Structures are given as structure tokens and as C-alpha cells.
Amino acid sequence: MDSPDRADFLAGLKPGGKYEGVVGLYRHNVSTDRIGLFDKEIIDALAAAGVKWIAHNGAGYDQIDVLYCKEKDIWVSNTPGAVDDATATTGFYLMISALRCFSRAERTLRAGGWKSTHKPGEAHDLTGRTLAVLGLGGIGLRLAELAHAFPMRIVYHNRRPNPDAPAWCEYFGADRLDEMLAQADVLSVHVPLKDSTVGMVDETMIRKLKRGAVIVNTARGKVIDEPAMIRALEDGHLGAVGLDVFPDEPQVNPRLLDFPNATLLPHMGTETCDSQKKMEIRALSNLRDFLTKGKGFDIIPEFK
Amino acid sequence: MPPRIVLCDPIVYEDEGKAVLEGVAEVLQLDPSVDRDEFIRALRPGGRLEGVVGLYERNQSTGRIGHFDRDLISRLPRSVKWIAHVGVGYDKVDVAACKEHGIGVSNAPGALDETTATTALFLLISALRGFSAAEQSLRAGNWKNPHSAANAHDLTGRTLAILGLGGIGLRLAELVHAFPMRVLYHNRRKVANAPEWCEYYDKEHLDDMLAQSDVLSVHVPFTEETRNIVDERMIRKLKKGAVIINTARGQVVDEEAIMQALKDGHLSAVGLDVFHNEPNIDPRWYRFPNAVLLPHVGGSTAEAVRTMELCALQNLRDFVLTGKGRDLVAELR
């Protein structure tokens, strides 16, 4: 696909266009810069051209209107599993940085202040502290494994208990969510972004955390109510945050840069050559299986 | 009259700390403004601190008496028989001079295993993933330019070589084993209680270990034997693109050689918590985009400070009651 913009892409899908006859697509979020999100307009054009499969590269597929794809009989696969290690490692890094105040320490050093802003009393070891995982899927579970090496105590909330979770992952259902939040030193967010999860980590949830708690987000920026999080940083209810994702990337709310104890990364969750290779192979394998067997392996849950 | 102890630095965990010496010794606090000469005068007969038998001191002392070097130690009155160092690394205390003057020195072994190993892990992840430059880029308003995933790596399946498998090195090994990384180590002697997945390489096979390592993490104490142990030769034996992590002491690595290796790409990144001449570190470090730098905060957590303080005070307590602290440093045994 070499289209520099949406108009060219749509034109290419029409009869006689350069993409005529296409039955399957490999897609990565970077294409959004040129052709925009996979909304109804694009999906209509794909359906008209005869596309039957979209093999998305990535675990999160919020940039595709998948329910509309379903209506138009276009199947969608993603790349679960392939992202787990790199993303969990990112969450792990953000958690360590937040608890140890390392981001601020490095910035102060680089600004010529050595360790003048570092107060040992504000920095903590991880062993014995409690990590709450919101959404124990592949990534959440991988993070739990890494944190368990200290060990941290692992608690989690999921719509249903995860049958693959080891015994040391303590489940808290919806009725006990508040109980879980009250015990968490760190809340790490691992839910996909969909209509039901927008702003899920809201004022109420944030205030149920103990004072001084840390929030880590490697999922999607919109899952957290950003103004509520900022208020909690301002009044010290949250001790620190570690964020890899933001509601309106690549824009970052400048207010976040003011907080000394914020560790901020520009959506680096899967940015390693090892993981990118794994993800590409996974997506292309789904496309290959669609072509050879009629169906890719990683069909997204909305289609099951 | 109870024996007298001087706190050359304040205790952070005061209540718990003072309780250790309650009823056992009289605890005196050194004024932070007192300089070395005044300190020595105060310790002498007639001085405010006369007859003191033990001292409590920290490496990064806020006071003006300076480090416990040969000059200071040789001027201490004969009454002083114990120095309880609040820290693990005691390279700034001249233990040879202490030995000559019959002064015992204790440190806090094991107190920083957790804290320092976590720091090394943080530096390792940051260096392999390019996170430091990425955050700087974001904060400068450039989002993730000019990061390239091609230069960033997962930890899983990569090889970590530990130089010095003591408490901290072993703890780091446990943490990376969770990924897992493959763990190799070099020590003067094989470590008896190391897990079987920690592969030992002796001096004869050191080059072999280096050639297989994606990351070398340094965990040796600083002594004259280990000065510049990570030198040009060792660095060049590492595979191209390797990463060096140092949470030990700046003096055990050749900074010039490391910088050169970063410049020519032999090293792909470094993660450093310690430097020559802290806090006035070589400003050239700031210009390496692939250097992760921390200002010697590797052992700085609330929990670690408390553990080290209580350990030092316990050693002073044991010294007062039995003549000897439990954690007498190796050189004085």
C-alpha cells in the first residue's frame, strides 16, 4: 500500500484501481498517519472491493471499527501474545521508576543538580508491596510473573477469573473491586480500549486507591480519566505515575510534565526489533492461514 | 558511666534507632557544622565528646569532618575502638589505618541486595530498550523521534554476565531469571549456594564468558585489586553491541575506555549509577544518547536506609556489650 493519503487509498480500492482484487490486508497503526482510522468510510470501500480479512499488527485494535467490519463480513485478527513480553517489561520499568523516583533523579542529574531532589524516604523497594492488575490478560499476566520475582503481592480484577492465572494471583471480582483498590500500592492498567472501558479508571476508582499509590498505564490513554488523574497528582493522593500511553498521541498534556514524579514514555510498549518481528510474523501468519485455510488463528473476540 | 557513642551523621529512623542503644550507651550527636579539627578537639579529654568509644558514620556525610581517611583516623583518641559504617561499600573508610590503630570497622552486608539489584535491573531494561532517550525526547516535545526499534531489545533469551556474584549480583540474577535471561558469572571462587542456572566462569574462562554476553553488570567492591577491573581489554572482549551496567563503584571501570567504546559502537549502551569523582561527574556522559545515568541513588530507599542504620547501631550495641560487632569487615578479621 503506497497511498500517501485517504483519497488515494479509497480511489485505489475502486474497480480499475491499483488495489483491485485485494482480498486481505495487513495493517499497522502507523498507516493512520496517512489514511486515517479504519472507520465506516474505509470499511465500506474495503467491503466493496472484496476484502474479507484484516490482519492487524498489534494487540489493541481500537483504531478499527470492528463491529462495522463484522456487519460488512470482513474478519479481523490481531496479534495477542506477541506483544506480551515487551509491553509487560515496559510496565515493569514504569513501576520500578515510579516507586524509586528514578525519572526525576536522572533529570536532576542531567540538569546539573546531582541528587538534590532525591529523598530516600519517598523511594521504595518493591518486595512485599502490592501490585493490582486491572485486566489479567496476556500482558497483565506477564507483568505479574516479573513482579512476582521480588516478590510483590499480586491482586487482579477481571470480568471473570483467569483460568491460566497461578495461585498467587489473587482474584477480586466486581463486588470486591474497592477492597482490591484499597490494598494496592500500584495499579497497572491492562484493559483494551472499547466503549465500555473509556474513562474506566475514573475519579471514584482513583480515590479508592490508598494515598500515595502509583498508577501505571501501558494500555490506552483513554482508559484513564486524565483530568481526574492529574487532580490526584496535584493533591498528592497519587504518589507517582508511569505512563506509556496518552489520550491524544502524539500530544502529551503539558501538565503531566510538571509533576516531578511522573515517568513518561512515548508509546514504546512493543518497540523492540525482537517483538516487532514476532508481531509481524504473527499478523502475516494470520493472513496466510486465511488464504490457505479460510481462517486466521487470532480472530478477535468480537467475532467469536 | 555508660560508654559514649557519637553519631557523626543524623539518624533518619530516630525512634527505632535510639531504642537500639537505649540503656546501653550514651548517644551524642555531632553538630553538622563542626569541622575536622573541632571534631578531634571535642573528642579529647575536656572536650564535649571526651571518652567516646564508638562512632556511627555514613558515606555521603552531610557534615564537614570529611571521610574517615588516614589523617582523620590517626588523629582519633585511643578511646575510639569502633567505627560503624552506615552502608555496604566502605571504600571511603581507610581500613588499613584502622587496623594499625586497633579500631574495628563494621558495614551493613546484605542491606542493599534488594535495592541495588533493582537499580541494576532498571538500568538494564532502560539501556536495552532506549527508554532514557525516549523520555527525554518526549519531554523535549519530540514524541519518540529519533528512536528506532531496530536498536532496542527484549531481555528474554539474552545473556547477562555478572561480575562478582555476591548478595547484590545474586539478587539481580534472580530478578532477570524471571524473564528469563541466561545468567553467567565470574567470581574469584565459585559460589556454593548459587542456583544451578547461574553458570560459573573462572579466571581462565573469563574471555569466553565475555564473548557470550549481551550485558555485563558490575558488582565488585572497590579495592586496589579491582580498580579499573573493567578495562579496555575486558570491554573489547564483549560482543559488539553489548551493554555495561555499573551500580558498584565508578573506580572499578575505565570511564575513558567505555566512552570510546560507545563512540565507536562497540558498546550499544550503558547504565551507570556510579562515577569517578561524584558528584562532579565527567560532563561528556551527558552527551551520549544511549547512556542511562543515575546520581548514585542505587541504595536509596526508605527501607534500605532503615536497614543500614539499624545494622550500624546494632553493631555498636554488640561492640559495647561484647567488645565486637557482628559485621566486622573482612580485612579486619
TrEMBL record, chain A:
UniProt similarity note: Belongs to the D-isomer specific 2-hydroxyacid dehydrogenase family.
Domain D-isomer specific 2-hydroxyacid dehydrogenase NAD-binding per the UniProt entry, residue ranges: 93-269
A Pfam family recorded for this sequence: 2-Hacid_dh_C
Organism lineage string: Eukaryota, Fungi, Dikarya, Basidiomycota, Agaricomycotina
GO-annotated molecular function: glyoxylate reductase (NADPH) activity; hydroxypyruvate reductase [NAD(P)H] activity; NAD binding
Protein name: D-isomer specific 2-hydroxyacid dehydrogenase
Keywords: Oxidoreductase
InterPro entries recorded: D-isomer_2-hydroxyacid_DH (IPR050223), D-isomer_2_OHA_DH_cat_dom (IPR006139), D-isomer_DH_CS (IPR029753), D-isomer_DH_CS1 (IPR029752), D-isomer_DH_NAD-bd (IPR006140), NAD(P)-bd_dom_sf (IPR036291)
Signal peptide residue numbers: none
Highest taxon above the source species: Eukaryota
Keyword Disulfide bond included in the entry's annotation: no
Domain D-isomer specific 2-hydroxyacid dehydrogenase catalytic: 38-294
GO annotations of cellular component type: cytosol
Gene3D superfamilies (UniProt xref): NAD(P)-binding Rossmann-like Domain
TrEMBL record, chain B:
D-isomer specific 2-hydroxyacid dehydrogenase NAD-binding domain: residues covered: 122-298
The organism's place on the tree of life at top rank: Eukaryota
Positions of the D-isomer specific 2-hydroxyacid dehydrogenase catalytic domain: 20-328
PROSITE patterns according to UniProt: D_2_HYDROXYACID_DH_1, D_2_HYDROXYACID_DH_2, D_2_HYDROXYACID_DH_3
Alphabetized Pfam families for the sequence: 2-Hacid_dh (PF00389), 2-Hacid_dh_C (PF02826)
Keyword terms, alphabetized: Oxidoreductase
Keyword Oxidoreductase attributed: yes
Family statement drawn from the similarity comment of this UniProt entry: Belongs to the D-isomer specific 2-hydroxyacid dehydrogenase family.
Protein name, entry field: D-isomer specific 2-hydroxyacid dehydrogenase
Taxonomic path: Eukaryota, Fungi, Dikarya, Basidiomycota, Agaricomycotina
